[in-house]
Amino acid sequence: MPLGAVHVDHQLQPDSAHWSERCRALCQELDIPFELHRVEARPGPGESPEAAAREARYRALREWLQPDHCLVTAHHEDDQAETLLLQLLRGSGPRGLAGMPAVSVFGPGWLCRPLLEVTRAQLLEWARNRDLDWIEDPSNADRHYDRNFLRHEILPRLQARWPGVKRALARAARHQADAASLQVDLAISDLLQVGGRGPATLSVAALLHYTPPRRRNLLRYWLHGLGLLMPSEAVLEQIEQSVLGARADTMPRVHWPGGEVRRYRDDLYAMPPLPVPPAQRQGWDGGDVNIPAAAGRLEVMPTPGQGLAREALAGRRLQLGFRVGGERLAPAGRGHHHSLKHLFQERGIPPWERDRVPLVYCDDELVAVAGLWLAEGWQARGEQPGLVLQWSRLPG
């Protein structure tokens, strides 16, 4: 694996361009390939400068890293102690209190921190003994930042009283990492037992057999696996009370920034916040189409003898629409018209999904509900060219 260096310029300090050139010159002197990435790291409303800079930096590094390559950073034992204290003050659980792992998956490759058992003082001594020089970021002395406040004000006092405090905190982080790993193992085992009827759903009745701590552990793991932002402790409590504790004939919903949990019958669903589907029909050319307003994608697969008869659609005005109420359809093979509401209930499709399934109209006649039903008389038969419609959720 070739050796290379990357520098991220956050553009937050007046001299940051000079620092970048210093890194480039050093790499040229050592004959190491060098890449510079400039990022926009100014915080958004309500975002801390530290968090904004960290997110911008790691986003750039993930994009730079090649598949199966390893990014090596110089995080040390003092950094680990500071991280543990910050997470403790935020009320984090074992996952947060585990601190920084020595090796972890990172983008398409790996992130390695080989110096987590080496102190800052040891690194400084090593560098000075070799007459190395470096540039110190002046923001490291700014005690308005939480990490710097801990570094300059709190940890020295703790160390004066307990000289081994940094090593003890690093050891505590390892213990928490073990506990977090056991929680994951338990959640994986539990997830196999509480799956609902639909994909990626949970059975409410099965969940209620677990103790609240075990249930919350499983919910966190489930939500994380779905790629949703983790809700706060208060939101998890609201899910417990308002969703799991609701009557089976209600359809409660709990939402937080980046996600929401809903219940239909015995199934628990989680998803990104759903957009409002379009109110008006839109023209359709009969091909694949993404519909962001309905959070899904319609795919059309030519299939002889299946789906909508292509010949029946030729030269006709095609449109896609969504439920507004009162629609009726005579599904192929059933012979009688039914309300879409009745058909959806019969299939056990949750109400919020019903409003986001495309309806196919041909000259204003409802001829198909994508992925579910075709109207009698519009299906391909024998070897007739047909169009099979498949509706799927776009990734959140």
CATH superfamily of the largest domain: HUPs
Please give the radius of gyration in angstroms: 28 Å
Overall mean pLDDT score? Answer: 91
Q: Based on the structure given, which CATH architecture of the largest domain is correct?
A: 3-Layer(aba) Sandwich
Portion in helices: 25-40%
Distance between the termini: 35 Å
Count helical runs.
Answer: 13
Can you walk through the features of this model?
The protein has 396 residues and is α+β, with helices and mostly antiparallel strands. Helix content is 37%, strand content 20%. It contains 13 helices and 20 strands. It has helices at 16-30, 49-64, 77-89, 94-97, 120-129, 146-161, 165-191, 204-207, 212-225, 233-244, 310-313, 340-347, 351-354; strands spanning 5-9, 34-38, 70-72, 103-106, 109-112, 202-203, 253-256, 259-264, 267-271, 282-283, 289-291, 296-302, 308-309, 318-321, 328-329, 338-339, 359-362, 365-369, 373-374, 386-393. It has a five-stranded antiparallel beta sheet, with no helix packed on it. The protein has a four-stranded antiparallel beta sheet with strand order 6-9-8-7. It is elongated, with a radius of gyration of 28 Å. 20% of the residues are buried. The mean pLDDT is 91. Its main location: cytoplasm. GO terms for molecular function: ATP binding; tRNA(Ile)-lysidine synthase activity. This is tRNA(Ile)-lysidine synthase.
Write the topology of this structure.
Elements: E1 5-9, H1 16-30, E2 34-38, H2 49-64, E3 70-72, H3 77-89, H4 94-97, E4 103-106, E5 109-112, H5 120-129, H6 146-161, H7 165-191, E6 202-203, H8 204-207, H9 212-225, H10 233-244, E7 253-256, E8 259-264, E9 267-271, E10 282-283, E11 289-291, E12 296-302, E13 308-309, H11 310-313, E14 318-321, E15 328-329, E16 338-339, H12 340-347, H13 351-354, E17 359-362, E18 365-369, E19 373-374, E20 386-393
Parallel strand pairs: 1-2, 3-5
Antiparallel strand pairs: 4-5, 6-9, 7-8, 8-9, 10-14, 11-12, 12-20, 13-20, 14-17, 15-16, 17-18, 18-19
